[in-house]
Amino acid sequence: MRARIVTLCAAPLALALAGAAPAHPASSLHASHAPQAPHASRSGQGSGHQVHTAANRSGSTARTPARFARVDLVSDVAGRAALTDPELVNPWGLAMGATLWVSNAGTGTATVYTGGAGTARKAPTTVAIPGGTPTGQVAYTGDAFTIKGKAGTAPASFIFSSPSGAITAWSAKADPRSAVIAAFTRGADYKGLALMNTDRGTFLLAPSFSHGALHVFDDDFRRVRLSRRAFRDPFLPAHYSPFNVEIAGTSVVVAYAKRDPATGRPVAGRGNGFVSQFTASGRFVRRLASRGPLNAPWALTLAPAGFGAYAGALLVGNFGDGWINAYNPRTGRYLGPLRGADGRAIAVEGLWDLEPGTAANGGADAVWFSAGISGARHGLLGLIRPAAGAASPRPTSRPAPTTSARPAPSHSHPSGGYGY
């Protein structure tokens, strides 16, 4: 299936999420030149990576040591974690609905987990992903992105990207056991996926590592024709390509890794990475992070409000060395890596995604991680949260007032009462 291409009107897009209030200014990426843009999340209609309200970080807190604890919960290796699941091999993208969905590149499946703090249980749903190994993933609860499967036609609930150039989608009403190929771009190498809600519709953003470009699809899975400058960092050095993309606050954030032109693979190494910020229309705003501790960065998310001293920080996870680096999302200032109780930087071998937890899944103070351990031959899923007794920021002045809290995401869906 070839991707159908449509032309997007040149008028600026604004990120939007119906019924949601803007996040606290400290937890949103500041885009001084962006069009009017309310709130957004990576997945449609309020699911997926969530933007969280955070304590004020513009000088109103005293810096104190931040320590975090890592808990390994699921692995395909017996004895490696509390729960053994042979399907969990080289897990990449994570998407949060009522449950946690995981893209397993090593088995070509998506598996589902539930559980509170420190526990994980596997749900009975396992979905086969055709068209190549799944990498990025988003959750969707709207009525677009319609797919047709063996059981019927319905809006997608989860959408996946693949290095083969396939975009696949799943709905329990279309096919309970398998996703459906919804779009295909020859020669594309899609390493990630984001869902962008705007004032003119919902779009998929897929970074093609091979093309060195961000591809955009409308809610009918048609490729959108972009200007040559759209979603391109004009200052990016040669041999760097978009590795992943995320919606954070009111901005599109892209992580770049160095690409080996001979093999097409990311090149690990300290300093091999950039993170750039764009408007919803694709206009370059600024470079958020350059080189330094970046090492083939892939994971991008805003830390949840309960994440201790780094609440509201932009977390950037390195595939190259497993470090999780924190940045001030307003200024791009480097805050440091997440550190364990011993003061050493937490390093998750083969780190892929980071996903904020919820009260029902992992805890609202935690971040889920996925990793392809043992050279991507095996998998690991776990949690990182503030260590017990770890210091938190102490307010030295009254924090700035926050906006009204974001409503809890709704997981109702046209496919019926199926729990996602």
Automatic annotation (TrEMBL):
Compositionally biased spans, kind Polar residues: 42-63
Low complexity: bias regions: 26-41
Residues of the signal peptide: 1-25
Keyword Membrane found: no
Keyword tags: Signal
Source taxon at top rank: Bacteria
Region ranges (Disordered): 26-63, 388-420
Keyword Secreted carried by entry: no
Protein's name in the database: TIGR03118 family protein
Organism for this UniProt entry: Microbispora hainanensis
Organism taxonomic ancestry: Bacteria, Bacillati, Actinomycetota, Actinomycetes, Streptosporangiales
